[in-house]
């Protein structure tokens, strides 16, 4: 296929050349909600999908990366009901056509997969597309879409510094590259003022109708409910099905973005969306399966693919919130790849984790060795034991916690690890 030797090579030249050979399918799409950011992209995408489907619309969804199967990146909209992950035949046909059109020229895997996205989504009817970027923004292969209905920029923090820059302001500038002149922009919760300033300045320079979380719209928890408010009024909603306080902001951003894209959001639809939204591998509760059976009986097991310091903070906050409601010893099972910041990620758990076990990532040549990861945990202020697998770690927890309160186990540190766990546990996303 002529795969590019770098794997990542941020440029739009190759994807544009390929799409032209394919007849420019990206120019023949339903309205697009384009989603970028460091953390919370997938959650915003899931909320947008749930909100639109709750109103009977058919929604194509592109997400990146997948957890277990390539097919997960493409959800094909079905009128009046939940969209379905693309079937084997449709995916294989689109992939073959893209490979043939590329003609062996240098190209990255993500560019091939993005071209598949545009073939699938241009040829299968739908009312709207929710399109999540891959790594960046400005040079992301999805950024060939010329006039999206709205652009969402989710929280910016340090990640992929080798490609996007080593300061949040530089990363924000790259993510802001999906903004198009005159197209509405919704900015989600931003922890760093420098990043927020870059995003706002870019939107204003391009003349984009702009709404900003905590300035133009907001959401908060009150009496066990989610209260959403913007210039159109207030909605009293159930808390999202996705756990974690950070999901309140993600839900609010999605509600505002769907409105900015020109769709109404009724309170009835928003309530249905909060109760039906799903996003595998992001604080996902595992209640059965082959791996679950190896953990101490009665354990509470959570799986999350967050892998940078910002993600570590929101996951740790979610674990602390669970501890407030029901006290259990927290055990971490962590695997990470070597392009991430393990110390920054693990530091968030220093005051709440009882035991830490480090594990390899199967099928990846970029996974951190469990011994090296345990050393990083020590530098972060945590004692960790290296293990040969997630299953072995769960067995070790079973032995150590025998006779005590069943623990809360958080397995995380990488989307690759989340995929390993879902596959081995027998809970593949559908």
UniProtKB/TrEMBL annotation:
InterPro entries: Folylpolyglutamate_synth, Folylpolyglutamate_synth_CS, Mur-like_cat_sf, Mur_ligase_C_dom_sf, Mur_ligase_cen
Signal peptide feature range: none
Keywords for the protein's UniProt record, in alphabetical order: ATP-binding, Ligase, Magnesium, Metal-binding, Nucleotide-binding
A Pfam family of this chain: Mur_ligase_M
Domain of life: Bacteria
Keyword ATP-binding among record annotations: yes
Positions of the Mur ligase central domain: 35-257
Family: Belongs to the folylpolyglutamate synthase family.
PANTHER family: DIHYDROFOLATE SYNTHETASE-RELATED (PTHR11136:SF0), FOLYLPOLYGLUTAMATE SYNTHASE-RELATED (PTHR11136)
Protein name: Bifunctional folylpolyglutamate synthase/dihydrofolate synthase
């Amino acid at each position: 296929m002529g795969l590019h030797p770098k794997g990542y090579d941020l440029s739009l030249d190759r994807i544009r050349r390929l799409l032209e050979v394919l007849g420019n399918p990206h120019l023949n799409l339903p309205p697009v909600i384009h989603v970028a950011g460091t953390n919370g992209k997938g959650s915003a995408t899931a909320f947008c999908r749930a909100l639109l489907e709750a109103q009977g619309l058919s929604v194509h969804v592109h997400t990146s990366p997948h957890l277990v199967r390539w097919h997960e990146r493409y959800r094909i909209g079905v009128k009046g009901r939940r969209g379905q992950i693309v079937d084997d035949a449709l995916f294989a046909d689109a992939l073959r056509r893209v490979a043939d059109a590329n003609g062996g020229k240098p190209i990255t895997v993500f560019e091939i997969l993005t071209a598949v996205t545009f073939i699938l989504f241009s040829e299968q009817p739908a009312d709207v597309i929710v399109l999540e970027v891959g790594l960046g923004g400005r040079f992301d292969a999805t950024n060939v879409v010329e006039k999206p209905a709205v652009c969402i920029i989710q929280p910016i923090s340090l990640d992929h510094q080798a490609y996007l820059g080593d300061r949040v302001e530089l990363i924000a500038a790259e993510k802001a590259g999906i903004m198009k002149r005159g197209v509405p922009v919704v900015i989600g919760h931003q922890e760093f003022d420098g990043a927020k300033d870059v995003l706002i300045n870019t939107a204003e320079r391009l003349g984009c109708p702009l709404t900003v979380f905590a300035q133009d719209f907001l959401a908060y928890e009150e009496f066990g409910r989610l209260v959403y408010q913007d210039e159109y009024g207030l909605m009293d909603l159930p808390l999202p099905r996705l756990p974690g306080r950070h999901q309140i902001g993600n839900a609010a951003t999605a509600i505002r973005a769907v409105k900015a894209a020109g769709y109404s959001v009724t309170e009835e639809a928003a309530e249905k969306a909060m109760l039906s939204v799903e996003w595998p591998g992001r604080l996902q509760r595992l209640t059965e399966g082959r791996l679950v059976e190896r953990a101490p009986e009665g354990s509470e097991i959570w799986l999350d693919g967050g892998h940078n310091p910002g993600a570590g903070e929101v996951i740790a906050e979610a674990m602390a919130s669970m501890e407030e409601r029901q006290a259990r010893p927290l055990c971490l099972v962590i695997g990470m790849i070597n392009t991430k910041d393990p110390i920054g990620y693990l530091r968030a758990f220093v005051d709440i984790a009882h035991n830490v076990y480090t594990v390899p990532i199967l099928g990846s040549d970029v996974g951190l060795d469990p011994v090296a990861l345990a050393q990083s945990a020590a530098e972060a202020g945590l004692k960790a034991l290296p293990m040969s697998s997630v299953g072995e770690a769960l067995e070790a927890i079973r032995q150590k916690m025998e006779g005590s309160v069943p623990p809360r186990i958080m397995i995380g540190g990488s989307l690759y690890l989340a995929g390993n766990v879902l596959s081995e546990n027998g809970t593949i996303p559908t």
